[in-house]
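The data layer described in this paper is built around a simple, fixed record for each protein. We quote a single record here, exactly as it is kept in our systems:
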Amino acid sequence: MRFEELESVFVETKRGMLHFLKNKSGPKDISLVLLHGLGANARSWKKLVPFIPEYMGIIIVDLLGHGSSDAPKIDYTPGLEAECVAELVGSLKLKDFVLVGNSYGGWVAAYGCANNIFQKGLKALVLEDSAGLKKEIDAILGKMTYDEFYNMELTGALRLNNNKDYVIRSIISNANEVYLLRDEDLKNIKAKTLIVWGKDDGVISSRYAEVFSNCIKDSKIELINNAGHIPHFSKPEEFAKLLVDFIRQC
């Protein structure tokens, strides 16, 4: 399947309209729900789509405030984003789904799973170079001030999404520290979990894959050589193979 063949759909949530792309064919026995990173959108998964087997459903979400989804002027948190995605999934009445999140999308997915926001149909979780880990943020803030970190992250994100800068500012804001993932949060994740990391990730070091894995009981790690922060984009065929093999074992 080609990315261009996916159907563009909107669904109403309590916080606004969410846009997503999906297979045009009927319901599948298992579906992938794909969540992009900060400032990105559904197109970040374009290279992966041709390597997904036809028997799997594809649901590629524009998170609230991103892409073609609504961007209300509200406080953006991983919890709010997870609730919107859960509403979307509920509206589709998916039989079984695997939640896949890259970077900020991983934070949203992990936070939602840790807090039982995704209660029905969740078969497994895939965290790809996931953000949101408190230990990672603490390590960064040990080397720079919060304002320096904020400005660094903000500059990079706005380069991707400069028409919705208030969304990015809200996500990066200090208030979101209460949503950072601690060991006890990760231990609440009950779904079988695959942790994928680009070995050459220069944004979030691959050593944090071990932190996630040590806290998530039923989890395994896969590192992808010569891949940075978005392995599904730089190494789509290899990422797809790891994903499909993992799902077959669930």
Summary: Residues 3-249 form a domain with the Rossmann fold fold (CATH 3.40.50.1820). The radius of gyration is 17 Å. The mean pLDDT is 90. The CA atoms of residues 100 and 126 lie 5 Å apart.
